[in-house]
Automatic annotation (TrEMBL):
This is LysR family transcriptional regulator. Coiled coil: none annotated. CDD domains: PBP2_LTTR_substrate (cd05466). Residues 1-58 form the HTH lysR-type domain. Signal peptide: none annotated. Keywords: DNA-binding, Transcription, Transcription regulation. It comes from Aminipila terrae.
């Protein structure tokens, strides 16, 4: 029962709603409320403030939050390991991805593994490379797909190389490769999800060049749509550029932008047999 209460607390904090948490976990709003009351009694502290304006986590709740996450992650790992001892074709694999990988590689990664192990379920989380490394480090996810480099505490396995390019309106007058020196003259549209823009920005800063960001879109695909309407240029990788359904022009860069796509994990000894089979499948396909 403790695990269920912990999961209820985490889901309420995530969704900021008892009702939404209940729907997600398969309980009524009243049951979620009772679980939280019971957990607070058990821990002898108040975890959440409830009032008409909404829910707010207390300072005590903030302090205990990482420990409750760790308990739930450890329980999930224990459960997955117990299941996979006898049956590889079961369990959950938790995966974090940068947005460009989610839009390009994810379907290719999944299709073959799903054919072999149709009963395995998956949880996907999007983020930037730093966020994904943090999630792998605290064991919120089993694997992360991201751009290199990886911090020394984690294991990174190279899958492939990617190169950056620019996306522009088909009416844009640019029709040649862009040099470093020309970058300051360009206007860029990006989103917080657009890690490729960050990668280009880092390369430019090493040359003492700052990129001119004129618009920040709410998400990655809307930045591509804005580029299509000639509101600015968007930075993506070449694999994604080939898959776009938008009416856009691809503009190449005249300098080396090669970056490794890697899969990141924490500790092979903590991965279930199902997870190890997933990793083996990746290595066989891409390495």
């Amino acid at each position: 029962m403790g695990y269920t209460k912990y999961k209820a607390f985490l889901k309420v904090v995530e969704l900021n709603s008892f009702t939404k948490a209940g729907k997600c976990l398969g309980y009524t709003q009243s049951a979620i409320s009772q679980m939280l009351n019971s957990l607070e009694e058990e821990l002898h502290t108040t975890l959440l403030f409830r009032n008409k304006s909404g829910i707010k986590i207390t300072n005590e709740g903030i302090e205990l939050l990482p420990f409750i996450k760790e308990v739930c992650n450890s329980y999930d790992t224990l459960n997955e390991r117990a299941i996979s001892i006898n049956n590889i074709d079961k369990g959950i694999i938790k995966i974090g991805l940068v947005h460009s990988v989610a839009h390009t590689w994810l379907s290719d990664i999944m299709v073959e593994f799903r054919e072999k192990y149709p009963n395995v379920t998956y949880e996907f989380t999007l983020g930037n490379s730093k966020e994904i490394q943090d999630m792998v480090k605290n064991q919120s996810i089993d694997f992360g797909f991201m751009y290199s480099p990886v911090i020394s505490e984690l294991i990174g396995v190279k899958l492939t190389d990617e190169e950056l390019c620019l996306i522009a309106s088909p009416n844009n007058i640019l029709n040649r490769k862009i040099t470093f020196e020309e970058l300051p003259e360009l206007n860029f549209v990006c989103s917080k999800e657009n890690e490729e823009f960050t990668l280009l920005e880092e390369l430019a800063l090493k040359k003492g060049i700052r990129l001119n960001k004129v618009l920040e879109s709410p998400d990655f695909l809307s930045s591509v749509a804005m580029a299509e309407k000639d509101l600015g240029l968007t930075v993506i990788n070449k694999t994604l550029a080939k898959k776009l359904k938008y009416n856009v022009k691809v503009i190449e860069l005249a300098f080396d932008t090669k970056k490794e796509i890697i899969v990141v994990l924490n500790d092979l000894n903590r991965i279930s047999r199902t997870g190890k089979c997933f990793l083996d499948s990746l290595v066989e396909k891409y390495c």
